[in-house]
Design a protein that fits this description.
- The chain has a domain of about 120 residues.
- It contains twelve helices and 26 strands.
- The protein has a seven-stranded mixed beta sheet with strand order 4-3-8-11-12-1-15.
- A hairpin with a 5-residue loop joins strand 20 and strand 21.
- Helix 3 packs across helix 4.
- The N terminus is likely disordered.
Length: about 475
């Protein structure tokens, strides 16, 4: 049995090797080999720089390696000291998107994606991958208990993905009307289209996970951090969060906004007992299932009050010293993550919808909530235009449709500016940063700063689970 085959059994009893997509669908890439690498047939290349261009479905190489190939697979001669370096884009399509130079250990694969595009893959041991993920997702100076927490959930999430079917993408379009919330407006419009879409992390076909926010941030060995990070991860080596004997699909987001969200709001309609809505506050230790102490945030008036006067929450943190300690530089630029406002020009919003969804509704005249999850996040939103209307979901599709990048979250209420029948703009007032399902990264970091241990943090965000060491 290969390591990859072992990884697909949940949980594995030895450390898997995984394939991480570093760059996908690029026409060319420049890779600097720092050390000697070998092909499967024993031939060697490096150190040196290789420029690879995809032409007519083949990889054309110049520099330290010359020739044309269908696929390139290189293994380091000295895994501890060899590395390859390239420029990669991080935060793709989000408001913090940028390009940075990154270095990676492990194997290097380049394969043809289509006639003119290639994909770059890093083959790496899971624990090496986790060490980089932790310092890509959070600051290396984060509290030790926060690092231990994230090591366990990142490891668990990855193993759960390897154990699931890939390519789960749900897309529904139709003309059957959906009941809408009565907002005091009478609209005698015809049947309208429905677009409900979500993309699972297993959608990658040529590798196990990608290196960006779609999966987990993996930004190379430059993010491996301080000795405390290495030690904290080593202490949790092989530890996996389990539910009913299987690795947990331990989702996480940057900031829940005060209440975490259930799995169904963001992804498939199945119920996952440990991915439920719960208040992000002290003393909230619900059993699996619905927490009766949750505010009724599916109701518009309750949600408005929650946004304007939020209750105590771990992630309601404005302590600059804590945020500097837990957030990477590019994340610190986002200061309004707990509560935020966005103003959408009505005409520009219509153009955004046309560009993002490929459906021209004309100028938008109304945004009508249809269904919300228990954290207040929109699951379905009706977009009413001057020429047509559309119901869109789930939460990420809503965030994508109404922003040049993505809205921080879909937990927002809507106010119109200007004439009722033809508003000038829409003011969105919202909470949180991300889908809100599972662990709240800022909330967990604040808990750790308060001296709360990683096992207790995991119990708070994933009720009914246990931590088990699956391999040493």
């Amino acid at each position: 049995m290969t390591n990859n085959e072992a990884a697909k059994k949940s949980p594995p009893t030895r450390e898997p090797i995984i394939d991480v997509g570093i760059i996908d669908r690029t026409e060319s890439v420049v890779v600097r080999l720092e050390g000697s690498y070998r092909f499967a047939d024993g031939h060697r290349v490096g150190p040196g720089e290789i420029r690879v261009i995809c032409r007519d479905g083949r990889l054309s190489c110049e520099g330290a390696l010359r020739g044309e190939f269908e696929t390139l697979e290189l293994e380091p001669e000295d895994p501890a000291n060899c590395r390859f370096v390239l420029a990669a884009t991080i935060g793709i399509d989000f408001h913090w998107q940028q390009t940075e130079t990154e270095a990676f250990r492990g194997g290097l694969r380049l394969l043809v994606r289509d006639e003119s595009h290639l994909t770059v893959i890093n083959q790496v041991a899971l624990e090496t991958y986790i060490t980089s993920v932790i310092c890509s997702e959070m600051n290396a100076e984060s509290p030790v208990e926060a690092i231990r927490t994230h090591a366990v959930i990142s490891r668990s999430w990855l193993l759960a993905q390897l154990d699931r079917k890939r390519g789960q993408v749900s897309f529904l379009q139709g003309t059957k009307p959906v009941p809408k919330v009565d907002l005091g407006q009478k609209r005698d419009l015809p049947s309208f289209a429905i677009r409900i879409r979500w993309t699972e992390r297993e959608a990658h076909t040529d590798y196990d996970v990608c290196a960006d926010d779609h999966c987990q941030r993996y930004q190379g060995i430059g993010r491996t951090g301080s000795p405390q990070v290495t030690d904290a991860i080593a202490e949790t080596r092989g530890q996996v969060l389990l539910f009913a004997g299987k690795a947990c699909d331990a989702r996480f987001s940057k900031c829940c906004g005060g209440v975490t969200e259930q799995y169904q709001t963001a992804w498939g309609d199945e119920e996952i007992p440990y991915l439920v809505a719960l208040p992000d506050r002290p003393g909230s230790e619900p059993a699996p299932g619905h927490d009766p102490n949750l505010p009724a945030l599916t109701e518009e008036n309750t949600l408005r009050a929650f946004l304007q006067d939020p209750p105590a929450a771990y992630c309601n943190c404005h302590d600059a010293s804590i945020l500097r300690r837990v957030l990477n530089d590019y994340d610190q630029a986002t200061a309004d993550f707990f509560r935020w406002q966005v103003r959408l020009d009505a005409a520009q919003a219509g153009q955004l919808v046309a560009e993002k969804l490929g459906i021209d509704l004309g100028r938008l005249v109304a945004l009508e909530p249809i269904e919300r999850g228990p954290s207040g996040r929109l699951k379905r939103l009706r977009l009413v235009g001057e020429t047509n209307s559309l119901v869109v979901g789930k939460e990420l599709e809503i965030r994508r449709a109404l922003s040049p990048t993505h809205l921080y979250s879909s937990a927002f209420v809507i106010d119109s500016e200007g004439p009722t029948e033809r508003p000038d703009a829409f003011l969105l007032t919202g909470a949180g940063w991300g889908h809100g399902v599972g662990l709240c990264q800022i909330g967990a970091a604040v808990m750790a700063c308060q001296g709360i241990g990683y096992r207790e943090i995991l119990t708070h965000y994933y009720p009914g689970t246990e931590v088990v060491r699956c391999y040493g």
